[in-house]
């Protein structure tokens, strides 16, 4: 008799590749042979994952296979309300995923019935659901419904008779009364089980008083245990009118939403209007992330004991960016997901930009946005949860572990794909998207997914993946695995290197500034307004801030002259020279602190000023004053008098009061890469896995002595650079190579390998000498030599 493993073994290589592509978790790691693959494919966890990927119609067909005695395409089509071609196509999908099998008769794969205990919302047939009844109770039940059985009581004969009586249960239902029929109606479409007290209590037709007792006495409900009753399948099908499902369709619900309303320019396509709006949002998101991380690089917020970001720091970030808190939380979580932000330690650390942030700054705006979009799309962190409370009534903080939801990446991708299907003419609404997702993945529905749909739409608009509710062309590229930067770059404003400096001590940036100019201008001037253009204002405080950071008056003048579209106005040059002339004339040290100057007259003026009394100054020498205040407080006090002192080191040098930007290395992750439910595998790896399964099956049948042997002689040796180049060339050509390999103990071995992929410091390929797919550390490969296939 054919087994499930035999059926798998009879599949050709193309069918096995399709199975492993649809269920990639089956090859992580690659099973030893097809018997091991069959055992893994019918494991409860594997079956559950495969069921989670089925759409509503295909799942209904599978449930019908479990219910119908002969699940042929015509019978399945009648059961689910589709055409025979639609039912046959669904069967092919199920067969391709290994969920149904059989060469002569279609049957559900082992383990499917256990994963779907109530197919189509139906309970077990009467013979099964009453099988646990004692013979005495079955005799009483049959006696009340028909007549006392003749002869010696036989459980099997009693169950057959009860099933015959329930084949047409309408007289029994009518006899039970209208209130009993109403109780059955609650279980008709599933689930077919209910909870009642003392379900196994003895009850007969003559003594039954309540609706449940009348149903139990007539066999219309069966007591599973002391608190559970089940509706027999025959009764449910009668009340359904013979139907298995109420509203199953072979196609997802249609997308609905707003049409038109795009402010397209003359001769512009709708896609271009969407791209323009999305590009504006993308540019703003990139600028805000840069602004926030620049600030946190100088003044990093502390890490909470729980590992997240404090509410006050989130509010401060929102105030700095002039956005709502959810918006700030999204940008922070996205920066973290993109690897631009991390914490310095588990306890007592701070949130700081990573060295990758400095590399990110060197990229153009489109490239930077691409990094953020990739991070957001694959992140399992949900910014929308920030500010809510968890199951233990504790607040969910940004960057905290409580915001992790593993389903988030799959839902985001699914929502964007629905928008892609809608096209540029339709702004699909959230309810329509939820309905389609419920059809595509019915087993994953729930309140969290419904909320994730709303959050995804909101976040996609803020991050620049959508415009006017439509998916932007560059976001389509992102979904398809292509580079979205070229498509986005066409619609981004060009970075400018010139500013318009005006006589009222303001500078106007007519567009986004190049990174270096933006950072220097933010240091020397204050942002007065933003919008289509950014207005900066130069003040004595902003000029002093630049001087405190180590810039000189000549540096500032040269910078502004180089980037100004017009000659520098005299008021600005006078301001820079005046602040620079007074800057540093006073030196402050710690004695607790002191004041030093080359002009005794300046100290005379300070001591004569009554406002200086709180500074507790004492003259130590004609040019030196001492104070009991800390150096920082003394600096602030002197500046409040209209002076411009600078801090001094013990050696007499100037202290740069703008601290160097901090960076933190992201902690190495100890978590190995794991297959998620929607993870896809590389086609080359799948092909290598099929070869390994076939070889493992052959080795199990014929013996290990038939495995491939490496060539005789010493393992090959080649330079490291040449080794990597030869392996990559073998991947492109699909060639077989002979490699020398050192194990962790330093023992050398020879392998015959068909390389599949070279990345991340590892070679992945089919090892013909071991009949398995293996990963080889590149630094352990001593050499490569090509051999004949």
From TrEMBL:
Cytoplasm found in the keyword field: no
Keywords from the named record: ATP-binding, Helicase, Hydrolase, Nucleotide-binding
Chain ranges of the Helicase XPB/Ssl2 N-terminal domain: 499-621
Pfam families per the UniProt record, alphabetical: Helicase_C_3, WYL
InterPro entries (UniProt xref): WYL_dom, XPB/Ssl2_N
Region annotation Disordered: where it falls in the sequence: 248-268
Start and end residues of each WYL domain: 723-784
One Gene Ontology molecular-function label: helicase activity
Protein name: Helicase-associated domain-containing protein
Biological source species: Actinomadura keratinilytica
Taxonomic lineage: Bacteria, Bacillati, Actinomycetota, Actinomycetes, Streptosporangiales
């Amino acid at each position: 008799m054919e087994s499930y493993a035999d059926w798998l073994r009879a599949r050709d290589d193309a069918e096995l590749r399709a199975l492993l592509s649809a269920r990639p978790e089956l090859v992580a790691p690659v099973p030893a042979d097809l018997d091991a693959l069959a055992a893994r494919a019918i494991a409860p966890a594997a079956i559950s994952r495969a069921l989670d990927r089925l759409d509503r119609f295909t799942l209904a067909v599978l449930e019908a296979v479990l219910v119908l005695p002969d699940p042929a395409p015509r019978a399945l089509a009648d059961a689910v309300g589709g055409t025979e071609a639609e039912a046959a196509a669904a069967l092919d999908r199920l067969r391709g995923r290994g969920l149904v099998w059989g060469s002569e008769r279609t049957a559900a794969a082992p383990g499917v019935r256990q994963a779907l205990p109530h197919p189509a919302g139906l309970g077990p047939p009467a013979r099964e659901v009453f099988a646990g009844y004692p013979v005495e109770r079955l005799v009483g039940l049959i006696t009340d419904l028909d007549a006392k059985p003749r002869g010696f009581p036989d459980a099997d004969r009693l169950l057959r008779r009860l099933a015959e009586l329930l084949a047409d249960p309408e007289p029994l239902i009518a006899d039970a009364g209208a209130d009993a029929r109403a109780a059955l109606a609650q279980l008709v479409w599933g689930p077919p089980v209910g909870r009642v007290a003392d379900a196994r209590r003895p009850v007969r037709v003559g003594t039954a008083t309540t609706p449940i007792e009348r149903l139990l006495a007539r066999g219309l409900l069966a007591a599973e245990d002391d608190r559970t009753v089940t509706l027999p399948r025959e009764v449910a099908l009668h009340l359904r009118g013979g139907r298995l499902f109420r509203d199953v369709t072979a196609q997802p619900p249609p997308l609905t939403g707003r049409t038109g309303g795009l402010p397209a320019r003359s001769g512009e396509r709708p896609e271009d209007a969407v791209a323009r709006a999305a590009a504006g949002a993308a540019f703003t998101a990139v600028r805000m992330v840069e602004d926030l991380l620049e600030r946190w690089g100088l003044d990093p917020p502390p890490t909470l004991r729980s590992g997240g970001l404090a509410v006050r720091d989130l509010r401060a970030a929102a105030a700095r960016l002039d956005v709502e808190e959810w918006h700030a939380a999204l940008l922070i979580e996205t920066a973290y997901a993109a690897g631009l932000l991390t914490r310095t330690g588990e306890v007592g650390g701070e949130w700081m930009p990573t060295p990758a942030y400095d590399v990110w700054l060197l990229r153009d705006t489109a490239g930077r946005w691409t990094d953020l979009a990739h991070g957001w799309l694959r992140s399992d962190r949900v910014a929308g949860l920030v500010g809510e409370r968890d199951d233990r009534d504790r607040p969910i903080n940004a960057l905290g572990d409580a915001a992790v939801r593993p389903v988030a990446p799959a839902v985001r991708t699914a929502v964007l794909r629905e928008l892609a299907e809608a096209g540029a003419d339709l702004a699909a609404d959230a309810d329509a998207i939820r309905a389609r997702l419920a059809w595509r993945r019915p087993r994953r529905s729930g309140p969290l997914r419904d909320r994730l749909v709303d959050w995804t739409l909101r976040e996609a608009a803020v991050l620049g993946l959508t415009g006017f509710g439509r998916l932007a062309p560059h976001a389509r590229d992102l979904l398809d695995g292509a580079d979205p930067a070229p498509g986005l770059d066409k619609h981004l404003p060009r970075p400018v290197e010139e500013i318009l400096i005006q006589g009222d001590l303001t500078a106007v940036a007519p567009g986004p500034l190049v990174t270096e100019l933006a950072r220097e201008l933010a240091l020397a001037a204050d942002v007065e307004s933003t919008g289509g253009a950014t207005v900066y204002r130069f003040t004595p405080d902003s000029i002093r801030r630049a001087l405190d950071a180590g810039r000189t008056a000549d540096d500032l003048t040269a910078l502004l002259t180089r980037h100004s579209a017009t000659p520098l106005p005299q008021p600005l040059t006078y301001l820079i020279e005046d602040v620079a002339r007074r800057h540093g004339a006073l030196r402050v040290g710690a004695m607790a602190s002191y004041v030093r100057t080359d002009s005794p007259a300046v100290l005379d003026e300070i001591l004569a000023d009554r406002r200086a009394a709180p500074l507790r100054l004492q003259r130590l020498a004609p040019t030196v004053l001492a104070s009991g205040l800390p150096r920082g407080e003394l600096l602030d006090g002197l500046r409040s008098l209209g002076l411009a002192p600078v801090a001094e080191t013990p050696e007499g040098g100037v202290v740069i009061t703008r601290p160097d930007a901090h960076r933190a290395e992201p902690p190495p992750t100890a978590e190995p890469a794991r297959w998620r439910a929607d993870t896809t595998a590389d086609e080359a790896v799948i092909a290598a896995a099929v070869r390994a399964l076939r070889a493992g099956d052959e080795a199990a049948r014929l013996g290990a002595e038939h495995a491939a042997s490496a060539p005789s002689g010493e393992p090959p040796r080649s330079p490291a650079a040449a080794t990597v180049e030869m392996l990559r060339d073998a991947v492109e050509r699909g060639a077989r190579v002979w490699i020398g390999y050192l194990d962790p103990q330093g023992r050398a071995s020879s392998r015959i390998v068909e390389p599949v992929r070279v990345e991340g410091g590892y070679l992945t390929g089919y090892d013909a000498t071991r009949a398995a797919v293996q990963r080889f550390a590149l630094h352990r490969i001593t050499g490569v030599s090509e051999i004949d296939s």
